[in-house]
Amino acid sequence: MNIQSLNRLKITVFSVLCTLFFGLLNAQDQPQTEKSEFWKHIRFGGGIGFSIRGNDFSGTIAPSAIYEANETLSFGLGLNGSIYNRKNIFKSTILGGSVITLVNPIRAVQLSAEFEELHVTRKWDEFYDREDEKYWYPALFLGAGYRTGNFTFGVRYDVLYDRQKSIYSEAWMPFFRVYF
After folding, report:
1. Checking DSSP bridges between strand 73-86 and strand 109-124, what pairing results, if any?
2. Are strands 109-124 and 133-148 parallel, antiparallel or unpaired?
3. Euclidean distance between CA atoms 138 and 119, whole angstroms
4. Are the CB atoms for 143 and 172 separated by under 8 Å?
5. pLDDT of residue 106 exceeding 60
6. CB 175 within 8 A of CB 156
7. Dihedrals φ, ψ of 137, to 5°?
8. Which residues, 6+ apart, have CB-to-CB distance to 32 below 8 Å?
9. How far is Cα 11 from Cα 95, in angstroms, rounded to an integer?
10. What residues does each domain of the chain span?
């Protein structure tokens, strides 16, 4: 499979995931018949993240669904689509999934633990004599944020951070998360 076909496949997969994500958000606004007890505890949403440092940029869109066990504890699954660009050095495209746990010890504070497993495709600039790379990268984020209604913003830290392989420019990353 050539690079152009692979890039088209990535864009198609990412577009389908975004369409499904926003379709699920829109479905939340539609009148529905009585839900089962399980579905009353499911919330859809996700997060976005970014990091800018010098010539490095990383951005992430991560739709997810969580099950609210009670007012304090939620857990769920998510998808992840990211880009990473180190100007004039390389560009990366990243797709993967995650498992997340959210704890709200008090209404305004949200603690999180999220494990991601990401497939990284890294294309080096033509001036570098390096082969393009494809590999799997794990990340374990511990985070804390301020929560108001359905929105949470805060900071998270990747405890498995590896500067050579990570798609993120640094271990610390701000986030914005919403669930409906």
Report:
1. unpaired
2. antiparallel
3. 9
4. no
5. yes
6. yes
7. -130, 125
8. none
9. 11
10. 3-179
Weakest mean pLDDT among 75-79, 96-100, 151-155, 165-169: 165-169
> Under CATH, which number does the domain 3-179 receive?
2.40.160.20
Query: Which residues are bridge partners to 176 per DSSP?
Result: 48, 153
Quote the pTM value.
0.71
Spatial contact of 65 and 27, defined as CB atoms under 8 Å apart: no
Q: How far is CA 118 from CA 37, 41, 70, 139, 147, in A?
A: 33, 28, 30, 8, 27
- 150 close to 68: Cβ distance less than 8 angstroms: no
Lowest mean pLDDT among 8-22, 48-62, 72-86: 8-22
How many Cβ atoms are within 10 Å of 102's Cβ, its own excluded?
22
Per-residue pLDDT tens for 119-173? 999 999 988 888 999 999 999 999 999 999 999 999 999 999 998 888 777 999 9
